[in-house]
């Protein structure tokens, strides 16, 4: 997700700053290919793990935190779908359009499955406490919001207006699945922070996660409004002014969500400024939420148009790229020293086995 949003940011910069378009385009492609490599390797390793050790699948699903990260799978895939539509579909045309559309539908199915299944799993299988809650609860819920924003990108390359309309309508439904539920979780999370104070240092980075649905929701509703402005008149759907209404409505809602995201950005920065926290995989939580917030800011600047939002979005985007470099260096270093990856569900099993072994020794 973090690498994918960096590739999308470079692509956006290449359109905003034509004088540096060639260099920015190359960087965008480089990060896109790196994203495909990382996604493919991690997906293969994960699939092999659950295929070779099937019992770990059930252990993972029952873990109240680790299971939530399944939502990152469709979100990471969405960044690949977006870049494929932005870069390769215009070049290749033909069957590449249908491939992009098929990829998006796969992403939609997995996103909906995560959004429906994992929260219900929390209600029925997990042992949760309010004081230990983290913003990771948002991960499966954000997946359909990301798919909705991706739907606007896919609709922009579909030659058949009717197919584009189906994609847009589906994307609005996906947006409606995710944003209200994400706001519900954000309210609960705010209450948790107010009553039980900041999370432990190990998971303090999770305070950035609420920025994700707000930033992506803002970008997605603007992108869908932009496509509605074009597609609704072509298909004569609803009223002749429906596209214009959705466009204006999308901008207003995006501005409100952006303002709400600004509040959480302040909370996040203030929280980490008070904490010293060790490097772990959670540091990747810096990149995607702030990256989509930067995309929302850039899009606001394009739609108005506004130099203020464009410059601010560029500053946010540049910060995300620098954060990616910092986190990537830390990740490579910790992988080399073998101190990064762990499976919380297996760690809990190891503890249980150790306790059982200790009791047996005491009995003897």
Detail the topology: elements first, then pairings.
Layout (H helix, E strand, L loop, with lengths): L1 H15 L4 H32 L2 H8 L9 H21 L2 H30 L14 H17 L5 H36 L14 H25 L6 H32 L13 H17 L3 H30 L7 H20 L1
Description:
It is a single chain. With 364 residues, the protein is mainly alpha-helical. It has one domain: Voltage-dependent anion channel (Glycosyltransferase, Alpha/alpha barrel), CATH 1.50.10. 78% of the residues lie in helices and 0% in strands. The protein is built from 12 helices and no strands. Keywords: Cell membrane, Membrane, Transmembrane, Transmembrane helix, Transport. Belongs to the tellurite-resistance/dicarboxylate transporter (TDT) family. This is Sulfite efflux pump SSU1. It comes from Massariosphaeria phaeospora.
- From the alpha-carbon coordinates, what is the Rg to the nearest angstrom? 21 Å
Largest sheet: none
Shape type? globular
Count the helices. How many?
Answer: 12
| Mean pLDDT figure | 92
Full CATH superfamily name: Voltage-dependent anion channel
CATH class: Mainly Alpha
Summarize the structure.
By secondary structure, this protein is mostly helical. It has helices spanning 2-16, 21-52, 55-62, 72-92, 95-124, 139-155, 161-196, 211-235, 242-273, 287-303, 307-336, 344-363.
Question: Can you tag this structure with a few keywords?
Answer:
single chain, 364 residues, mainly alpha, Glycosyltransferase, 12 helices, 78% helix
């Amino acid at each position: 997700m973090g690498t994918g949003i960096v590739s999308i940011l470079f692509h956006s910069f290449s359109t905003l700053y034509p004088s540096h378009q060639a260099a920015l385009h190359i960087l965008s492609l480089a990060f896109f290919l790196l994203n495909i490599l990382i996604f493919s390797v991690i997906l293969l390793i994960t699939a092999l793990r659950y295929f070779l050790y099937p019992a770990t699948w059930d252990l993972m699903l029952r873990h109240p935190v680790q299971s939530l990260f399944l939502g990152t799978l469709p979100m990471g895939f969405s960044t690949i779908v977006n870049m494929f539509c932005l870069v390769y579909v215009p070049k290749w045309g033909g069957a590449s359009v249908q491939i992009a559309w098929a990829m998006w539908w796969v992403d939609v199915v997995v996103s909906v499955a995560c959004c429906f299944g994992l929260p219900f799993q929390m209600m029925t299988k997990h042992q949760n406490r309010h004081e230990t809650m983290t913003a990771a609860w948002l991960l499966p819920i954000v997946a359909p919001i990301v798919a909705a924003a991706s739907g606007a990108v896919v609709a922009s390359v579909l030659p058949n207006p009717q197919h584009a309309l189906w994609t847009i309508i589906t994307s609005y439904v996906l947006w409606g699945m995710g944003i209200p539920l994400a706001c519900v979780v954000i309210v609960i999370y705010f209450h948790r922070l107010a009553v039980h104070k900041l999370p432990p240092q190990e998971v303090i980075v999770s305070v950035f996660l609420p920025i994700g649905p707000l930033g992506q929701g803002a970008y997605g509703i603007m992108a869908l409004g932009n496509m509605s402005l074009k597609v609704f008149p072509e298909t004569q759907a609803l009223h002749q002014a429906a596209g214009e209404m959705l466009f204006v409505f999308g901008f207003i809602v995006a501005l409100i969500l952006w303002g709400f995201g600004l509040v959480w950005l302040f909370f996040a920065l203030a929280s980490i400024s008070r904490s010293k926290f060790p490097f772990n995989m959670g540091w990747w939580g810096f990149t995607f939420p702030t990256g989509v917030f930067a995309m929302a800011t850039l899009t606001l600047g394009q739609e108005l148009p506004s130099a203020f939002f464009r410059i601010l979005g560029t500053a946010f985007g540049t910060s995300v790229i620098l954060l990616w470099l910092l986190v990537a260096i830390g990740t490579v270093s910790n992988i080399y020293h073998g101190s990064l990856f762990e499976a919380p569900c297996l760690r809990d099993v190891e503890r249980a086995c150790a306790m059982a072994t200790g009791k047996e020794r005491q009995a003897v």
